[in-house]
Give the backbone structure.
Amino acid sequence: MSAVPGLKEDCEELLGAFQQADTVRFERFAELWRERRFYTVFHGRMRALERNKLTKKTLELAQQYFLPPYSFQIRVGALYLLYGLYNAQLCQPKQKIRIALKDWPEIQKFQQDLLDSQHYDAAYIFRRLRLARAFHFTAMPKLLTYRTKKKIEENYFKEEFKDPSNRVNSLITNDVLEELMNIHDHYQKMKCVISADKSQPDKALSLIKDDFVVNLKDITLEHQEWQQNRMKLFRNAKVTDGTENKKKEETLLESEGSERANALARIKYRSYSAVVEVSKSRRHRQVQLESSESGSSCGKSPSRSKKTSRRPQPAWRRGEMQVAEEAVTRHIGMPIITEENSDEEEVSLSKRRRRR
Amino acid sequence: SIDMLMSSEKEEDPDVIPEDSSLLTLRIRKKDLERREETIIVDRACRQETLTYEMESHATGKRPDNPTDLIEEGELLLTLNIFYPVIFQKHKDHKPYQTVLVLGSQKLTELRDSISCVSDLQIGGEFSSQPDQAPEHISKDLYKSAFFYFEGIFYNDKRYPECRDLSRTIIEWSESHDRGYENLQSVKMEDYVFNDLSLKIGFPYLYCHQGNCEHIIIITDIRLIHHDDCLDRNLYPLLIKKHWLCTRKCFVCKMYTARWVTNRDSLAPQDPCFFCDVCFRMLHYDAEGNKLGEFLAYPYVDPGIFN
C-alpha cells in the first residue's frame, strides 16, 4: 500500500518527543498528544471507503513501532499511540490493529515486563485495547496487496529509536555468566579433588585466572555503560542547536570515535602519497592518487571509483571499523609500484576495494 | 477518564481541517483537498466506489437467525484473490480479480460452487436455424469436472459421476520424464476442508474447470474470526470485492446487453457483431420465423454479466 504522506514524520516526531521526555507515564504522552492535537489526523473531508483505507494504513504504520527492535520506551510510546489512534478513528465499525502470530509471544513478554516494572498505566492501556477487541490476529503482519511499485521503499529504522545493538550483552547474558560461574566452581573442585592437598588445587594446575568470570562481568557492564553514555551524548548533540555545549560534546564524540580513524587515515595517506612517477613512455597513463573518501573520484576508471563513493553515511562505530579494515588490508597487501606493474597495481587496488 | 484525554474537548467537525495544524499529514491533506475542490466540479461517489464500499462492508456485523449457524471463536478466516482468466488485452498488466472470504472449516467444494466464471455459462453450438432452442444446456451442467491445485496436490471434484479427473493428464506428463516435480497426488475435493491444507500466503495456486478455463488463486490473508465480522455461516464464502467489467451492448439499440453474436453475417455491418435478443430476431427473422440472409449465430454470454 502506498504510504500516507507526512504520517511517518508526524508519528516519529511525536515518539521522538516522548523519548526526550524520558518517561513512560501516560499523562506525559497525553500532554504531548494534546499539544499536537493528534486526533485531527483523521480529519479532512473524505468518503467512507477512503477513510477506511486511510485508517488501516495509519494503524499499520503505528503498529510497526510497537514491535522489537525498538527500545522499550519507544514501544510504550507506540502502545499509547495505538490506543489514541484506535479511539480517535472515525470509521464505523472501527478498523483493527493487525498483529502477526509470530509477534504475539514478544508482545506478551513485553506485557509481562510492564507488569514487572510496575508500569501499571501502560499495562492498563494494553488491557483496555484487548477488551475493546482492537486486535486482529493474523498470520502475516502486512496485508498483501498487488500494486506494482515504482520503487521499493526501504523501511529504515530510525537510528535513535532503536536500542543500541547490544551484541556484547546478548552474548554474555546473565544465564551465560551464571553457567560460567558454575563451571568454574566445578573445575576448581575437580582440581582440588585430584590434587594432593584436598583444600587447595596444586600450584601446577593453576592455568587460568581464578576470577575471570567476575572480570568478564565487569567488562561487559563497563561496555554497556559506555554505550549508554555515547547514545546520550549523541542524542543531546543532535538536539541542542548551535550552543557551546553542542560543540564541546561533538568534539568529545568526535575525539572518541574518530581518534582512531584519524590515526588510520594518516597512515593511509602516508603510504599512498608515495606514488612513483611513471616513465615518460607511459605519460598518458600516469598513476593518480585515488582518494578513498566518498565523493571525490578521479583516475582512469570512473566506474570503479563510483563504487567507493556510493558507500552510505556510516554510523560512528561502523565508520571506524570500516576504516580500520581498509587500512589493514591495504597495508598488508601494498605492492611495489613499478613501471611495468602500474596497471596491475591499479587493478589489484580496485579489486580490493570491490571486495569490501 | 482516560478516554477523555484522547477525544476532542469541543465539538469539532471532522470534515474541517484546522487552520493552524502542526501535523505534516494534515497540511499535505489540506493542499490535496483544496486542489480537488478546484478541479472537480461534482465531488460525489461514483457507481464503482459505491459498489466497492458496499461489497466490502455489507456483511460486517451480521448475525444469523438460526443459532446453529453461528461461527465459533477460533475459526479461521481466509482471504482469497481469484483472478479471472484474461479475456481482454487491456487486462494483461493488472489482472482483474475477485476477493472471497472463506472459513477454515468449509469444504473446498463450497468454494468451487461460489466461484462464478463466465465460461460456466457458455452455450455451445450454432443456433441460427433454431434460435428458440438456444439456452438449453449451459456448460456448467455439461462439464462438471474441476480441480484445485494446492502445494503439489490436485483436489478433484468427484461429486457427480460425469466428473473426470482432469489432473490425470498433468500427473502422467510429469511422471513420464524426470521433469523435476516431486510426486503430484490426486485426491477428492469433497473430502477436504481448508483447515486440512498447508498453504503459502501470496503463492499462486490454480483452479481449473471446463477442461481449460484456469484461474489463479492467491491467498492474501489468514486471520482469526473477530467479533465485528459477519458470523453467519451460510453467507460464506463471502464475496467482498469484484472487478467491474463493462458489458457489451447491442449494436442496434445500444441499450441492452448483447445476447447473440453473429459471424459472416450479410446483414450486419461488422464481423463479429453483437445483438440483444429483440434486435436479433427483428433483423434476422421475418414474421413467420424464417431465416433471412446468411449468417452464423451463437448465444453470447458477456463477462460483465455478474455485475
Observations:
- Residues 168-259 of chain A form one domain.
- The mean pLDDT of chain A is 68.
- The CA atoms of residues 85 and 163 of chain A lie 25 Å apart.
- The longest strand of chain A covers residues 97-100.
